[in-house]
Write a structure and sequence with these properties.
The protein is of the alpha/beta class. The protein has three domains: 262 residues, HUPs (Rossmann fold, 3-Layer(aba) Sandwich); 77 residues, Glutamyl-trna Synthetase, Domain 2 (Glutamyl-tRNA Synthetase, domain 2), CATH 1.10.1160; 113 residues, Ribosomal Protein L25, Chain P (Beta Barrel), CATH 2.40.240. Bound molecules: adenosine-5'-triphosphate (ATP) and magnesium ion.
Length: 575
């Protein structure tokens, strides 16, 4: 399927305008930043990206693209404890898969360690930073809390010379972890806790994946982030709402130093989805405790999981556009994501037939050795996909659910003595039901067919109640099909104070079907090929486990679109 690469593949609907777009527009109009727009996506490589990050990626890269600017990919690798190469590689792959290109602008906060250290010395020299020798516990205690103003450290008034000397010796490795820290000298009485002399540097005797043993002091996030933005010439530093209270510190640091520019931090609401979780820590728990089968489990909202499931990147981009950008935290209905997925797939996925729970049907009046090639469109709404042929022969498989021995009146499929149309082929009539002598289970149907009814759109004028899908037993390929359902049974699994989110894991979120039968045209399907199995939903060959000769499909979504239904009921369009 070409849709992965076809970046703004047709289904793109430009979402409603939002306040960040408006701010950038205004800035450009006012000639701010010399007419430049520069954003960045700054993940900490301590886990895999999820759908929430996709919102930030789409926003940062999207704004840059829209206004002819640039967007950097920057790894926020200030913490030597957590960075893992595995995460870094996955993050790069995910951003590229989503369809965004950082060109040659791949950076690491650790690239700036020298410069950050220089700046720290300047802060000491201007009396804006000091070495504190209180213990971690004491620092916490002195800081006070929301109701209690902070208390100044007895070390706060060290001379510049003493601070420079101590900081130099911290850097040289003379002290143990926790013996000293470098703090900003701001205001211990500030109502904003972040301004109560925040820590800028701490001692960590740990090699760093990129800088090795060069450092044993590491800069803190709040100090690093604003300076990295400034060093890179970022104009609009977009981040999530939890950083709103950090903005005064962001601005304070930049105001004290001779930085090349002063980026504007703008906060927006995180994206949360119903029936899933978007916390890296909780996702890690699910993976490590074996509730799912790895970070790319198709039930997870990780980008690796969504990709493996078969979700096209264009669907994620459209979804992110549609949820928009706001200042208010909100939990988006997962049905909206599913809707975006169906919309993208409906356009691009070729149609095929798969029988998930096969029931053998013998057409008794069809010659033993005859094969009829029936023709069917690859895409019913788009003739440019062309047609396909499917072999029809005396024995076919139909879906077990498409037969009922004792059906209610409204059942529009096959039943004893009733007729049904085999899609694109013949009308058949069920003459006999064969059961297993021991168990009584239905093992075979014996039917007759009407040879005059062949075709996709036969003009035979036959009034047949139902149309069902089928595959020829002699020609069908065997496949494994993995059906996924929502990972949690409640809309907000992490929002129950007294109950752990794991309590709400859906025990039926995965069903593996083996012995499924699919049409022979899919024999050579490479991994990550998407189809619509007619009447059943959208399916994708598994990225890792499927290969020609051993087909494994993941169900991406069913055909039932609850979002479209909700939108219709509310009398408004979903888009
Ligand atoms: P942590 O709690 O480990 O910091 P994080 O989810 O904030 O986790 P980061 O790697 O720091 O992870 O995030 C990278 C960027 O993605 C940040 O700018 C962050 O604001 C943004 N981001 C993270 N989660 C979401 C979300 N749910 N919705 C929108 N943006 C998000
Ligand atoms: Mg973060």
């Amino acid at each position: 399927m070409g849709s992965d690469n076809d970046k703004h593949g047709g289904t793109e609907a430009t979402g409603p305008s939002h306040f960040i777009r408006d701010i950038i527009r205004q800035d450009l109009r006012a000639g701010k930043n010399g007419g430049r727009v520069a954003t960045r996506f700054p993940p900490e490589p301590n886990g895999y990206l999820h759908i929430g990050h996709a919102k930030s990626i789409c926003l940062n890269f999207g704004m840059a693209e829209e206004f002819g600017g640039t967007c950097n990919l920057r790894f926020d690798d200030t913490n030597p404890d957590t960075e893992e190469v595995e995460y870094i590689e996955a993050i790069e792959a995910d951003v590229a898969w989503l369809g965004f290109d950082w060109g040659d602008r791949l950076y690491h906060a650790s690239d700036y360690f020298d410069q950050l250290h220089e700046y720290a010395i300047q802060l000491i020299e201007t009396g804006k930073a000091y070495v504190d020798s209180l213990s971690g516990e004491e620092i916490k205690h002195y800081r006070g809390d929301f109701y209690t103003p902070g208390k100044e450290s007895p070390y706060r008034n060290r001379t510049v010379e003493e601070n420079l000397d101590l900081f130099e010796r911290m850097r040289a490795g003379e002290f143990d972890e926790g013996e000293h820290v470098l703090r900003a000298r701001i205001d211990m009485q500030s109502p904003n806790m972040n301004m109560r002399d925040p820590i800028l540097y701490r001692i960590r005797k740990k090699p760093h994946p990129r800088t090795g043993d060069a450092w044993c002091i590491y800069p803190m996030y709040d100090y690093t982030h604003c300076l990295s933005d400034a060093i890179e010439g970022i104009t609009h530093s977009l981040c999530t709402l939890e950083f709103e209270d950090h903005r005064p510190l962001y601005d304070w640091v930049l105001d004290q130093l001779p930085v090349p520019c002063h980026p504007q931090q703008i906060e927006f609401a995180r994206l949360d989805l119903t029936y899933t979780i978007t916390s890296k820590r909780k996702l890690k728990q699910l993976v490590e405790e074996g509730h799912v089968k790895g970070w790319d489990d198709p039930r997870l909202p990780t980008l690796q999981g969504l990709r493996r499931r078969g979700v096209p990147p264009a669907a994620i981009r459209n979804f992110c556009d549609r949820v928009g950008v706001s200042k208010a935290d909100n939990r988006v209905d997962i049905a909206l994501l599913e809707h975006a997925v169906r919309e993208a797939l409906d356009k691009h996925a070729p149609r095929a037939t798969g029988v998930l729970r096969p029931l053998r049907v013998v057409i008794t009046d069809f010659p033993e050795d005859q094969v009829v090639q029936v023709e069917a469109p690859v895409h019913p709404k788009d003739p440019s996909f062309g047609t396909r042929t499917m072999p029809f022969s005396r024995v076919v498989y139909i879906e077990r659910d498409d037969f009922m021995e004792d059906p209610p009146r409204k059942f529009r499929r096959l039943a004893p003595g009733r007729e049904v149309r085999l899609r694109h082929a013949f009308v058949i009539k069920c003459e006999e039901v064969v059961k297993h002598a021991g168990t009584g289970e239905i093992v075979e149907l014996r039917c007759t067919h009407d040879p005059s009814t062949l075709g996709s759109n036969p003009a035979d004028g036959r009034k047949v109640k139902g149309v069902i899908h089928w595959v020829s037993a002699a020609h069908a390929l065997e496949a494994e099909v993995r059906l996924y359902d929502r990972l949690f049974t409640v809309p907000d699994p992490a929002g129950h104070k007294k109950t752990d989110f794991r309590t709400f894991i859906n025990p039926d979120s995965l069903e593996v079907l083996t012995g499924c039968k699919v049409e022979p045209g899919m024999a050579d399907a490479p991994p990550e090929t998407r189809y619509q199995f007619e009447r059943l939903g959208y399916f994708c060959t598994d990225r890792h486990d499927s290969r020609p000769g051993h087909l494994v499909f993941n169900r991406i979504v069913t055909l039932r679109d609850t979002w479209a239904k909700i939108a219709r009921q509310q009398g408004k369009q979903a888009r």
